[in-house]
Q: What sequence folds into this?
């Protein structure tokens, strides 16, 4: 349906960092350094677009040098060095270097995809409110579930959201209170399901399913080729919901963060 390199590119475009810089060591290695004032790991991590030195005798030396360069880039921005490392053979050499430098492993995430077959190409029902921009109510529900920080961090998150065309879905309860939201990133003929969030008091009542179905129908109506989404490996409930909606696993990734360096204290 879609190869790994393509899905990585779609993901990068769907959640674009505010600041980014290419790090090219030679023809075999290209990393993208991304920073967004620390808001979300995706937008503040290295994407090893071409991560490996294939069969190079000095691969460890050259990778170590690249890690050092990336570390300095993030240090100037007062951010930790984090790699988004995909689970495939291309990452083996990089993982070896990061293991030796004791990078932690965090937030294992599954990638799931599905085609548009079987999704009705209709506009979502009247219970699903769609918009091209996130409303204040949409942002309030999403940030109450996934937000990390206050108004300054939310402002950065809004810049990330606006960096890609998208459709925003919101469903209300019977009293008109916003219950669940979701985002459909529109990238190169594909749709990425992001920011799925249901407020605590509305969970396990089907609101998330209505948002998901509304986004899928909106994508099919736009003629999208297919859809992808990201779900943490520990979130088995969400994985079940997405499997019922026709999504299947298509790889995974995790974040690898440099160990914190503590200065010597007199205490």
A:
């Amino acid at each position: 349906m879609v190869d790994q390199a393509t899905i990585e590119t779609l993901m990068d475009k769907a959640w674009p960092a505010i600041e980014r810089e290419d790090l090219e060591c030679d023809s075999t290695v290209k990393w993208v350094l991304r920073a967004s004032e620390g808001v979300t790991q995706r937008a503040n991590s290295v994407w090893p677009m071409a991560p490996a030195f294939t069969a190079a005798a000095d691969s460890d030396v050259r990778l170590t040098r690249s890690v050092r360069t990336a570390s300095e880039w993030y240090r100037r921005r007062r951010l930790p060095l984090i790699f988004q490392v995909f689970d495939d053979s291309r990452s083996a050499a990089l993982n070896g270097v990061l293991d030796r430098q004791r990078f932690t492993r965090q937030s294992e995430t599954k990638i799931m995809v599905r085609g548009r077959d079987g999704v009705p190409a209709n506009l979502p029902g009247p219970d699903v409110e769609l918009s091209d921009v996130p409303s204040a109510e949409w942002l309030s529900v999403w940030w109450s579930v996934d937000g990390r920080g206050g108004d300054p961090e939310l402002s950065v998150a809004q810049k990330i959201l606006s960096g890609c065309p998208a459709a925003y879905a919101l469903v209300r309860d019977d009293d008109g209170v916003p219950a669940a939201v979701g985002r459909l990133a529109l990238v190169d003929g594909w749709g990425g399901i992001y920011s799925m969030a249901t407020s605590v008091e509305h969970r396990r009542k089907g609101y998330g399913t209505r948002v998901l179905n509304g986004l899928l129908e909106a994508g099919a109506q736009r003629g999208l080729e297919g859809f992808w989404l990201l779900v943490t490996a520990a979130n088995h409930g969400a994985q079940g919901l997405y499997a019922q909606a026709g999504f299947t696993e298509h790889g995974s990734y995790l974040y690898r963060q440099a160990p914190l360096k503590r200065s010597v204290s007199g205490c």
Q: What stands out?
A: The CA atoms of residues 110 and 231 lie 5 Å apart. Residues 263-267 have pLDDT under 50 and may be disordered. The chain has seven helices and eleven strands. Helices lie at 4-14, 59-76, 92-100, 136-146, 151-161, 207-221, 236-244.
